């Protein structure tokens, strides 16, 4: 499937606000989110000839924006470690900016649990618990089957539960969802 200039312009007009909102939810900075949104569409332009049409354009844009933002956060951390400068945001993960209003112990606990997970599992957990997507929606975005999504969520819960106990894990996941929702409302 070839995307023409008009197709790309239509996609930008229809989905730029969705991509921007996704970038903002991960990066927690308006300027960074705008830059990331622009980069997503630059990538679409550069790779338009490779778009196979197997997924809906919004799915591709959503997935690309998520991966781009996660990479930016990881790159930021890497640079901060290399420069050995104190980085107050170093214990946060994508979507964790809202934790500044939550108990620091719980914030650190959830961040450390997510940091132990691989990038794909972390994205799945964030999509499922934070964005409150269905298993089917997560499956479409990540590009793996619903049973695989379910297994990764269960494995994350099992490993995290062993680390902190089931009750503490439930409280942490509720804090994750509740804290981010509180941030989105304000």
Outline the structure in words:
It is a single chain. The chain has two domains: 5-83, Orthogonal Bundle (Rna Polymerase Sigma Factor, Chain: A), CATH 1.10.1740; 97-185, Arc Repressor Mutant, subunit A (Orthogonal Bundle), CATH 1.10.10. It is 75% helix and 0% strand. The longest helix is centred in the middle third of the chain and has 27 residues, at 57-83. By secondary structure, the protein is an all-alpha fold. The protein has helices at residues 5-27, 30-46, 57-83, 104-116, 119-130, 135-142, 146-164, 166-185. The protein has eight helices and no strands. The model is unreliable at 84-102 and 179-186 (pLDDT under 50). It is globular.
Which terms summarize this structure?
0% strand; 186 residues; Rna Polymerase Sigma Factor, Chain: A; globular; disordered C terminus; single chain; mainly alpha; Arc Repressor Mutant, subunit A
Structure summary:
75% of the residues lie in helices and 0% in strands. With 186 residues, it is mostly helical.
């Amino acid at each position: 499937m070839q995307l023409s200039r008009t197709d790309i312009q239509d996609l930008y007009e229809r989905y730029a606000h969705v991509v921007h909102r996704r970038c903002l939810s991960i990066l927690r900075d308006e300027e960074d989110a705008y830059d990331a949104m622009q980069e997503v569409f630059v990538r679409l332009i550069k790779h338009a000839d490779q778009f196979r049409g197997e997924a809906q354009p919004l799915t591709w844009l959503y997935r690309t924006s998520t991966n781009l933002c996660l990479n930016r956060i990881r790159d930021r951390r890497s640079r901060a470690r290399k420069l050995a400068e104190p980085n107050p945001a170093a214990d946060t993960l994508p979507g964790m900016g809202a934790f500044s209003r939550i108990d620091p112990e719980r914030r650190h606990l959830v961040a450390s649990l997510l940091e132990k997970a691989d990038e794909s599992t972390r994205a799945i957990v964030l999509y499922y618990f934070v964005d409150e997507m269905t298993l089917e929606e997560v499956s479409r975005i990540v590009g793996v089957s619903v049973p695989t999504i379910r297994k990764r969520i269960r494995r994350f819960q099992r490993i995290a539960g062993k680390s902190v106990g089931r009750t503490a894990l439930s409280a942490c996941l509720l804090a994750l969802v509740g804290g981010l929702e509180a941030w989105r409302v304000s």
